[in-house]
């Protein structure tokens, strides 16, 4: 560890490096841009190419501004198309979901012409319908008498506990 290890890979130059001029770089970038799909990296390389073209005099500065405006408009158009596609996809999914719910209800027997259900009524297997239960009014249900109820202790008479308290207070005086 005291000395530096030698690299197993030796890179040897084949020829002397050549320096590209600005004009050659501009031409190479223009050819390369034609093969790139539209996206952020392409926009960045287009800007680099435009600035290099202005530097060498191949492009006028007004042309660069026009190209930048076109890129901005193209980007806004692509975004709008993408939003529209997403919105259409959401609407299609919602429509399919609603159609599936309606079909599911029809398959389960809901919504058929042979069954009449009142608004808000839900049909479940084994559930009694309102007509099956008969008319029930307050006080009609006779249950076993509950020992905890005060009226059961006094033979059906309701005793007011407040009256008892008043009677107790009179006796204390």
UniProtKB/TrEMBL annotation:
Bias kind Basic residues: ranges: 76-85
Highest taxon in the source lineage: Eukaryota
Start-end of Acidic residues biased regions: 104-129, 137-151, 160-173
Composition-biased stretches (Basic and acidic residues): 65-75, 86-98
UniProt-annotated stretches for the region Disordered: 65-173
Name assigned to this protein: Uncharacterized protein
Organism the protein comes from: Saitozyma podzolica
